[in-house]
């Protein structure tokens, strides 16, 4: 029973996830601290509060509603999302696009109609598979398939 637990904990996915959660928590703490130290007081000054509006609240009867905390949390969320998007997602997308390999063109993917029987055939075909008449292959399709340099028999 303990061996199974040890195997589960030492799996790569669990360890990677634990590291990601720890780094995410530390990152959230940094963003929250930045938001409380700089962004929240600036917004408080702009809205006429006394510097920090995270203490803002209103009372209905004997119940206190600290709406400033909700606004501060929303600001921290927006800042976290923006930093993650612009500092991680955008650069990673550009790196993936840079190193992405073009998929090999499937020579049979482009289609056209046979001029004799009007059935759909591959654009690189030299003979119709349905009526067996000889047809001229499409030069662009041959170039995409890398067959333009090969000697292709011309129909009679």
Structure description:
There is one protein chain. With 156 residues, the protein is mainly α. 54% of the residues lie in helices and 8% in strands. The strands form 2 sheets. It has a two-stranded antiparallel ribbon with strand order 1-2. Strands 3-4 form a two-stranded antiparallel sheet. Strand 3 and strand 4 (120-122) form a beta hairpin. The termini are far apart.
Please sum up the structure shown.
This protein is mainly alpha-helical and 156 residues long. The chain has four helices and four strands; from the N terminus they run ααββαββα.
Task: Name the descriptors.
single chain, about 160 residues, mainly alpha, two-stranded antiparallel ribbon, 4 helices, 4 strands, about 10% strand, elongated
Topology record:
Elements: H1 2-9, H2 12-47, E1 58-60, E2 63-65, H3 67-99, E3 111-113, E4 120-122, H4 139-145
Antiparallel strand pairs: 1-2, 3-4
Number of strands: 4
Q: Counting H and I runs of at least 4 residues, what is the number of helices?
A: 4
Mind summarizing the main beta sheet?
A: 2 strands, antiparallel
Straight-line distance between termini: 76 Å
Low-confidence stretches: none
Percent in helix: 40-55%
Query: What do the pLDDT scores average to?
Result: 79
- Relative strand content: 5-15%
What is the strand arrangement across the widest sheet?
1-2
Judged by helices, strands and strand pairing, the structural class is mainly alpha
What is the radius of gyration computed over CA atoms, rounded to a whole number of angstroms?
A: 32 Å
What is the H/E string? HHEEHEEH
């Amino acid at each position: 029973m303990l061996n199974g637990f040890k195997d589960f904990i030492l799996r790569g996915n669990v360890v990677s996830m634990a590291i990601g959660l720890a780094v995410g928590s530390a990152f959230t703490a940094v963003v929250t601290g930045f938001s409380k130290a700089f962004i929240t007081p600036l917004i408080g000054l702009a809205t006429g509060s006394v510097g920090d509006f995270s203490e803002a609240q209103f009372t209905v009867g004997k119940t206190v509603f600290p709406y400033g905390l909700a606004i501060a949390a929303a600001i921290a969320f927006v800042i976290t999302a923006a930093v993650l998007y612009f500092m991680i997602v955008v650069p990673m997308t550009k790196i993936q696009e840079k190193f992405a390999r073009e998929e090999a063109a499937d020579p049979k993917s482009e289609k056209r109609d046979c001029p004799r029987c009007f059935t759909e055939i591959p654009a690189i075909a030299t003979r119709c598979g349905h009526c067996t008449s000889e047809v001229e292959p499409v030069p662009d399709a041959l170039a995409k398939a890398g067959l333009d340099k090969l000697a292709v028999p011309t129909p009679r």
